[in-house]
Amino acid sequence: MLKRLLTTATLCLGLTLTSYSQDVNNFEDINAMWSKFSQAFDALDYQSIAEIHTKELIRIPGGKQLLHYDNYMMTYKIDFEQAKKTNATRAISFRFFERIHNDSIASEKGIYKVVMDDQTYYGKFHVLLKKENGDWKIFMDYDSNEGGTVGEKDFTAAVAITDVSTFVKQ
C-alpha cells in the first residue's frame, strides 16, 4: 500500500513539474513555427506548409473527417494553385487560450482568423506539436467553426501569440 502511494505521489509530482516546465525559449521556437505557417499561408506556398507538418499528421477538419498528410497537403496544393490563378488572397492569424509544452511535445488551443479576399472566417483549433530534428511540427490538427458561432469577439478575447507571459509557468 505504501509503495502504491509513493508511486502515485511520484507520478503526480513528475506531472506537476512537467506541466510547469514551460519556458520562453520553447515558446519562441513554437511561435517561429506559427510564423512560418502564417507566412506560407499568406504567400500561397503549400510546400512550406508541408514542411511544418509531420509525415504522420492526423488532420480533423471541422470535426467531420480524418485526413492524413498526403491528403491534407493535396488540399493545400489545389486550393493555393486555384487561388493563384484567380489572384485571390489568403491571410491567417492565430490567438490562444491554452498553450502547454515541454521540451519535445506541445498542445496548443486557440482561435484562428482566415481572410480570403473580402471574406473573414473564424474557428477554434487544437494542435499537437512534436519536435523533429530540432524543429516544432504539427502532428495532430483539429479545427471547427462550432456551427458558425466563432467570431471576432472570440478571436480578440484570446491571447496574442506574442503574449507568452500568460502561459509561462515558473
Structural class: alpha+beta
Order of strands in the sheet with the most strands?
A: 2-1-6-5-4-3-7
Written as H for each helix and E for each strand, in order along the chain, the element string is HHHEEHEEEEHE
Do you know the CATH topology? Nuclear Transport Factor 2, Chain: A
Mean pLDDT: 87
Low-confidence stretches: 1-20
Q: What coarse outline follows from CA principal-axis ratios?
A: globular
Number of separate structural domains? 1
List keywords for this structure.
170 residues; alpha+beta; Nuclear Transport Factor 2, Chain: A; seven-stranded mixed sheet; 5 helices; 7 strands
Any chance you could write out the topology, listing elements then pairs?
Layout: H1 2-19, H2 24-42, H3 46-51, E1 53-61, E2 67-68, H4 69-85, E3 90-101, E4 105-116, E5 119-132, E6 135-144, H5 152-157, E7 159-160
Parallel strand pairs: 1-6
Antiparallel strand pairs: 1-2, 3-4, 3-7, 4-5, 5-6
Report on the structure:
The protein has helices at about 1-20, 25-40, 45-50, 70-85, 150-155; strands at about 55-60, 65-70, 90-100, 105-115, 120-130, 135-145, 160. With about 170 residues, the protein is an alpha+beta fold. It has one domain (about 25-165): Nuclear Transport Factor 2, Chain: A. The chain has a 7-stranded mixed beta sheet. The longest helix is centred in the N-terminal third of the chain and has 19 residues, at about 25-40. The protein starts with a helix and ends in a 10-residue tail after the last strand.
